[in-house]
Specification:
About 10% of the residues have low confidence. A hairpin with a 2-residue loop joins strand 4 and strand 5. The protein has a seven-stranded parallel sheet, with helices on both faces. Strands 5-4-9-8 form a four-stranded antiparallel sheet, with no helix packed on it. It is globular, with a radius of gyration of 18 Å. It has eight helices and eleven strands. Helix content is about 30%, strand content about 15%. The protein has a single domain, classed as Rossmann fold, CATH 3.40.50. With about 300 residues, it is of the alpha/beta class.
C-alpha cells in the first residue's frame, strides 16, 4: 500500500492523471511481453506476490500489437481534479484515446414496471451524463476524430442484466486502474453501502441514507433528500478487487478527513467502511491532500 500526501487537490489530481497517462502510453507502445493476468487468489488481492511482481506496478505491459487501456471511473467531486489534469496530459502528450475504455462504476436507476431502468442520461445527477460531459468531452477536446475516445467505449452496467457487466469487464481484459472515491459520511465506494461483502458483484443496490445525503451535496440541484433516487446499479467490491491490476483511492479536501482517519486506523478490509476494499486490491495507492492530512499520523 502506498500512501501519498499532496499540498493541494490540484497537485493530487496532477499526480493521479500522470499515472493514468503513463498507463495509456504503455498500453499503446509495442512490447515483446504479453500483459500480466489478473489473479483472483488471496495473494492476488493485494497480497505479497501481487505487490512484489514488477509486471503489476500499475503500468500494464502491452502485447506487440496495440492494446486497449481500461479505466474504472467514478462520478462526483473527488476525481474532478484528476479528470481536469488528465485532459491536460492528453493534450500535452498528444495521446491516442481511440482504444481507451471507461468502465463506469454506477448509475442511478428508476422503476420500470416490475424492474429497473437507467435514469435519463440528461438528468443533472446522471453518472453517464457526468462521464460524457466531465470525462469524455474534456479528454477529447482538441483531438482529431481518429484519436478521440469513442462514445461506444464508455460502459455502464445494465440494470436488467447487471451480471453481464462482469462478463464485459472480463472481455475487455480487466481494468488497468480503478480510480476510487470514498463517501465522506459512510465510506461508500460506488453505491456499495456499509456492510457490503468483499465478494459482492455488479447488482441493483438500495442506497444507504448517508450515501443519498452525500449525493445531495454532490448534486445540489436535487434540492431535498426526497428527490434523490433510492436505488442504483453498481459494481461490487469484488468487481473492483478481482478485475483490477491497480487501484487508486483519491481523498481530497477537508470533507475526507474522516475517511482518511478511518482507513489509517483500519489498514485492512472492514465491511463497515467499504472504501477499505482498497487494502484488498493489487498495487493499491491512497492519495490525499493537506486538507485531509490532519487525520494521518506522521
Amino acid at each position: 500500500m502506498e500512501w501519498r500526501e499532496f499540498e493541494t487537490d490540484e497537485v493530487l489530481g496532477a499526480a493521479a492523471a500522470a499515472l493514468i497517462a503513463d498507463g495509456i502510453e504503455s498500453a499503446a507502445a509495442p512490447h515483446p511481453k504479453s500483459r500480466p493476468a489478473i489473479s483472483t487468489s488471496p495473494q492476488g488481492r493485494g497480497g505479497p506476490i501481487a505487490n512484489s511482481d514488477p509486471r503489476l506496478r500499475g503500468d500494464r505491459l502491452s502485447s506487440p500489437t496495440r492494446e486497449r487501456y481500461v479505466l474504472g471511473c467514478p462520478a462526483g467531486r473527488s476525481p474532478m481534479s484528476t479528470y481536469r489534469a488528465l485532459a491536460e496530459e492528453v493534450s500535452k502528450r498528444a495521446l491516442d484515446l481511440s482504444r481507451v475504455h471507461l468502465v463506469l462504476m454506477d448509475e442511478f436507476v428508476v422503476r420500470d414496471g416490475d424492474g429497473w431502468r437507467l435514469c435519463d442520461e440528461g438528468a443533472h445527477y446522471s453518472c453517464r451524463g457526468f462521464a460524457m460531459r466531465e470525462i469524455r468531452a474534456r479528454l477529447n477536446r482538441g483531438l482529431v476524430p481518429g484519436r478521440a475516445l469513442p462514445a461506444d467505449n464508455l460502459h455502464v452496467p445494465d440494470p436488467a442484466k447487471p451480471e453481464a457487466f462482469e462478463v464485459l469487464i472480463e472481455r475487455l481484459g480487466g481494468v488497468d486502474l480503478f480510480l476510487l472515491a470514498s463517501g465522506s459520511s459512510d465510506g461508500h465506494v460506488a453505491f456499495n453501502p456499509p456492510g457490503t461483502e468483499l465478494s459482492s458483484r455488479t447488482r441493483i443496490v438500495k442506497l444507504a441514507e448517508e450515501t443519498r445525503a452525500d449525493n445531495l451535496s454532490t448534486f445540489p440541484e436535487f434540492g431535498h433528500l426526497d428527490a434523490v433516487p433510492t436505488h442504483g446499479v453498481s459494481v461490487g467490491l469484488g468487481t473492483i478487487v478481482d478485475h483490477s491490476r491497480a487501484a487508486l483511492l483519491v481523498c481530497p479536501g477537508a470533507g475526507k478527513t474522516r475517511s482518511v482517519a478511518r482507513l489509517k486506523a483500519l489498514q485492512r478490509f472492514d465491511a463497515s467502511w467499504p472504501a477499505s476494499a482498497i487494502f484488498a486490491c493489487a498495487n493499491a495507492r491512497i492519495f490525499f491532500d493537506a486538507a485531509a492530512a490532519s487525520a494521518v499520523e506522521h
